[in-house]
UniProtKB/TrEMBL annotation:
Alphabetical list of CDD domains matching this protein: ACT_CM-PDT, PBP2_Ct-PDT_like
Protein name, as recorded: prephenate dehydratase
Prephenate dehydratase domain: residues covered: 5-180
Keywords linked to the UniProt accession: Amino-acid biosynthesis, Aromatic amino acid biosynthesis, Lyase, Phenylalanine biosynthesis
Top enzyme category: lyase
Pathway assigned in UniProt: Amino-acid biosynthesis; L-phenylalanine biosynthesis; phenylpyruvate from prephenate: step 1/1
Alphabetical list of PROSITE patterns matching this protein: ACT (PS51671), PREPHENATE_DEHYDR_1 (PS00857), PREPHENATE_DEHYDR_3 (PS51171)
Naturally occurring in which organism (per UniProt): Paracoccus broussonetiae
Length: 290
């Protein structure tokens, strides 16, 4: 296996690349065309880790990612949150007044409507954010800009014409760092916090009130479930799989009891990873209760 390499989906300068730089600054990055290619890079040994976005605070979960994770054969070993700061990137010497069109992924175009309307800039759909920055650099037209990360501007030699132009100033993407091997050994995060996260997927048995009964053990054992989502399996309406995040480690007595009760009411249960909670979780909780 290739050591010290982390794979991500997108062109250099993508927000996934930014996440790699922040959470694994000493590792070499491997850009990949699709999420499947990113996962395969780790499975085939061309990378040690994969950086995968799973959800955004504005737009919800990343399409298809919950289908890919259980089938990947990889294990979650860390999570990280990246603040999505959007910049208007133009060719050297260009000014905002020169720009008539801005290219980016549709998600980013939708996050900058106020700025675009204020400056009379038309949005153009690009394949992805960093790829749009690359295209702007190639065309070298002052009237064409890109909406992307400042890192993309740095990589492709573009000027930051405006920064922080997103409509929502708390826009954040959650990433999962995945490996071929699980790591259940840690009981505290790097900052000294004691919160561990466990992520798993399950399917309930075909009995009345199965989901209600399956989740009852988490309530009675005082386990905080931070995420529960359902999605169809193989396009069949009656085949539903659930994806869940809880606070705690499977070896904690209360978590072990809750998982045992869950197992009684499910036909399948798979733990995808056990990892330290990112400190941002605690900060957000403090902010919500202040």
């Amino acid at each position: 296996m290739t050591k010290n390499v982390i794979a991500f989906q997108g062109e250099p300068g993508a927000y996934s690349h930014q996440a790699c730089r922040f959470y694994r600054p000493g590792m070499e990055v491997l850009p990949c065309r699709t999420f499947e290619d990113t996962i395969d890079a780790v499975r085939q040994g061309r990378a040690e880790l994969a950086m995968l976005p799973v959800e955004n605070s504005t737009y919800g979960r990343v399409a298809d990612i919950h289908h890919l994770l259980p089938e990947s054969g990889l294990h979650i070993i860390d999570e990280g949150f990246v603040r999505v700061r959007i910049a208007l990137l133009g060719v050297p010497g260009a000014k905002i007044s020169d720009v008539t069109d801005a290219m980016s992924h549709p998600v980013l175009l939708g996050q900058c409507r106020g700025f675009m309307r204020e400056h009379g800039i038309r949005g153009i759909v690009g394949a992805d954010t960093a790829g749009s920055a690359l295209e702007v650099a190639k065309r070298a037209e002052p009237a064409l800009a890109a909406l992307a990360s400042p890192l993309a501007g740095e990589i492709y030699g573009l000027d930051v014409l405006a920064s922080g132009i997103e409509d929502r100033q708390n826009n954040t993407t959650r990433f999962l760092i995945m490996s071929r091997e699980p790591d259940f050994s840690r009981r505290a995060n790097a900052q000294g916090g004691q919160t561990m996260m466990t992520t798993f997927v399950f399917r309930v048995r075909n009995i009345p009130a199965a989901l209600y009964k399956a989740l009852g053990g988490f309530a009675t054992n005082g386990i905080n479930m931070t995420k529960l989502e359902s999605y169809m399996v193989d396009g069949i309406f009656t085949a539903t799989q659930f994806y869940a995040d809880i606070e705690g480690h499977p070896e904690d007595p209360s978590v072990a009891l809750a998982l045992a009760e869950l197992g009684y009411f499910t036909e399948s249960l798979e733990i995808l990873g056990v990892y330290p909670a990112d400190p941002l979780r605690a900060e957000q909780r403090v902010g919500q209760t202040a």
